[in-house]
Amino acid sequence: MGTIAKLPTYFISHGGGPWPWIRDSFRDSFTVLEASLKDMVVQLGRKPRAVLVISGHWEEQEFTVMSNSAPPMIYDYGGFPEYLYHIQYSAPGSPALARRVEELLGGAQIAARSDSNRGFDHGTYAPLAVMYPEADVPVVQLSLRADYDPDVHIKLGRALAPLREEGVLIVGSGLSYHNLRRFDKQAAQPSRDFDSWLQETLVKSSPDLRTRRLIDWENAPSARFAHPQEDHLLPLMVAVGAAESEPGRCVYHETEFMGGVTTSSFRFG
User: Fold this and answer.
1) Least CB-packed of 120, 191, 217, 237 within 10 Å?
2) DSSP the chain
3) CATH of the domain spanning 9-268
4) What is the pLDDT of residues 4-35, one digit of tens each?
5) Where are the domains of the chain?
């Protein structure tokens, strides 16, 4: 891939399950999020050559990159109507991008492997169905590492940074608040407290301080209430690592998500 104008990176709150396909009133819960995802495309001004998604719904013992040229669907959710287990997001994969990811990680001495069978999970197809509904941009997923080490995931982002000048959009896809047992009014204050820390860390802190605060994220206010397990936070570390010296800004924010939860998404670079 040749060098082109550097793309930003994003950490997005991707919403719940297959929400873009839902036909009932639950769909209205995602109106603000949907508008922010559409605006991301406007911000970019052009289609990327490919999208690399680090989803909170895939973790392996070592970093693993999808190398399937035609990834299948993974219906990794429960309790939805039957029709939502037959939806399709038919974006092509990119074996060439998968090889490039392995090359970059190898150069950074980060162990990685490929998986030719892995399909898209909803952390990828839910937001991308809004951003690129024609499914005409190649998409590759990259797993988290199961040890959840924040420093390692920031280093992963650093290794991936050259992709930004190769037309690849790097998207960390999770949720800024992810406590599935507390998506209710009891979550209002803890989610607000953790979000305030995120805003201070990602938007207002210097790059060096931002990195230090992210590595130490467990000491943030309400950190373990907001993320009892940090699978949906770690994609943020990758997005920041890939744009570590560049400013961050909030591109999505609401305080009444799913009945009172504060959630946000961020752009870097």
Assistant:
1) 217
2) ----SPP-EEEEE--STTGGG--SGGGGGGHHHHHHHHHHHHHH-S--SEEEEEEEEEEESSEEEE--SS--B-----SS-GGGGS--------HHHHHHHHHHHHHTT--EEEESS--B-HHHHHHHHHH-TT--S-EEEEEEETT--HHHHHHHHHHHGGGGGGTEEEEEEE-SS--TT--SGGGHHHHHHHHHHHHIIIIIS-HHHHHHHHHTGGGSTTHHHH-SSGGGTHHHHHHHHTTTTS-EEEEEEEEEETTTEEEEEEEE-
3) 3.40.830.10
4) 789 999 999 999 999 999 999 989 999 999 99
5) 9-268
